[in-house]
Amino acid sequence: xxxxxxxxxxxxxxxxxxxxxxxxxxxxxxxxxxxxxxxxxxxxxxxxxxxxxxxxxxxxxxxxxxxxxxxxxxxxxxxxxxxxxxxxxxxxxxxxxxxxxxxxxxxxxxxxxxxxxxxxxxxxxxxxxxxxxxxxxxxxxxxxxxxxxxxxxxxxxxxxxxxxxxxxxxxxxxxxxxxxxxxxxxxxxxxxxxxxxxxxxxxxxxxxxxxxxxxxxxxxxxxxxxxxxxxxxxxxxxxxxxxxxxxxxxxxxxxxxxxxxxxxxxxxxxxxxxxxx
Length: 277
Fold this sequence. Notes:
The chain is α/β, with parallel strands linked by helices. The protein has helices at 17-21, 30-41, 54-64, 99-111, 131-140, 150-153, 167-181, 204-214, 232-237, 249-254, 267-275, and strands spanning 12-15, 45-49, 74-77, 82-85, 90-94, 117-119, 123-126, 143-146, 161-164, 185-191, 194-199, 222-226, 240-243, 257-258.
């Protein structure tokens, strides 16, 4: 296990949500909440950084009660395709998939009996009402809406698409998309049953770097916490990447440090208390 040998000088801290900041019951612990609030009091920007849409992140921002401060005003959604300013209620950074890409992904998914879903800040949209789309909506606390003319609906560019399926179907479709449009999009597996499609060269790491530049913060003074493959870019693009004890082994290998405890044992709070606050 890799741990710091002294206190770290941090000005911005970005946190993945699922399996990192929250426990398996999808809750923020009291200890973790206090640790992030203490970070804000010390002048550290605290940024929740998730594949979720904005409304899927906001309940945790509210639970932390930090949005009213300068250091708690930003969140990163859609795996880095959007940065949202809670004070101005506006996007300050946005990247989207083109209609042609969205239609291609949807058509190829349908050929395989799969459903490609897309999002706005509050709703998941799909052309078919599937158990997978409903499961994602429930996981992220979003509404679900079935669109009758989904092909026409995809004329509007959006931040990301997701194809939920069995792990085997997800891996097979990932290989196809990488070969066919891998030069135009980023394709990765965020959970074994979720295949995510985002604009090319857009990820959590790119968004954190953009926000550091926006705030005039040296990326070497930023720390990021994560557990999964969609966290890799932010764990490697900034000065300090921290993998959770429960992270994939590959993520632990590329991270600077690893927490002593997992997401059910306040791993984030323990690391912050010991090495940052």
